[in-house]
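Fold this sequence, please.
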Amino acid sequence: MYEFSSSVNSVHSEDIKLLMKLSSGKSMISFAGGMPNNDLFPVKEIDEIYNSLPEGIKKLCFQYGPTSGYPPLVRSLQAYLKDKGLPVDTNKILISTGSLQAISIITQEFVNRGDLILTENPCFVGALSIFETYEAEIHGIQIDKDGIDIEALKQKIASLEKIPKLLYITPNFHNPAGIIYTPERKKALLEVLSNSGIILIEDDAYSDLYFREDEKYLTKPLKSYGVNDVEIVYTGSFSKILGPGFRLGYMLASEEIFEKAENIKQALDACTSNFMQILANEFLVQDKLYPYLGFLRQEYEERKNILQISLKKYMPKEITWHEPKGGFYVWLRLPEHINSTEIFRESVKKGVVFVTGRTFDPESIKDDRLRLSFSNMPKDTIEKGVKILAEVIKTVFDNTKINS
């Protein structure tokens, strides 16, 4: 019998393992996977990029690189992030092995056992797993359709005996809730955090996946607001806009935070794959990214529309949701007396999987929601999956009425 460290006991890590298993189940209709569809990857473009590389750069693909990142990619990212209004001239970029590693590095940099971290509730399960691994005390703050509940946040901060180290949010096309923060809510959040000593982690994996050009302004990062009295660490990812298999993420942080983060990164894996960084850089500098994003937005909007039509057609009137303006997810609300785990058990038998609400609750309790991801779904199976799921929900409703 091994004596494991207490850091391996993350409840949400178990949820992630199950989620990844369900997402790859070929026999299921899966609304579980928060990932692109395999048929959407830019295979042809990447083939062209690699085949056109000079021999010397191809060899460099196989070599170690700087811990902070492949310098040409860092420069390309500076231009890409500057287009978003981010302060790249006064902050530094660290390339990470997926944005999850960036979040892990920030947590390791600031959090000791028992320190406080604030998150949204619901919250991205990957971040919860990290915070649990570092044995933080996590406090979830409810969100609504416009973002984090400001009054609830104020009350929580006032009630705590010590200052939280971090507040973690996903303001653009939230995972799992699918919402986007309004500009008003973003400004109100920055006012609350002003001179508070709480570091804001702004996790922004989805902002390029808006559906309507006239709503692009909603994706403006908080770190681009020019506020000097709130420390913001901005994280991003290529997982949703190029491919999860690249395992490429990054953080944009002040120089002081960057320097310590670079030390942690070096101890973790020395450097992120040069191979993937070189391919991603060429994808940017050869101007392939923006046309590809246009293609993805159209594809995901089509899937979202099919899902919306199907939900309206089949779901019982007791089920409610907000239609997303971008991203991957729809977050269904169930009546309070019904829990999504019960629905999940029955839907699996019928060949349909999704992610339960409790997966995204920091306390793994609240279970009156379920997440449907439309990004990985073939268009021709979405309606069938929704119809089966709706039938399961109706059956659970009926059984609950009989037993009550």
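The chain has two domains: 6-42+295-403, 54-285. The first strand starts at residue 29 and ends at 30.
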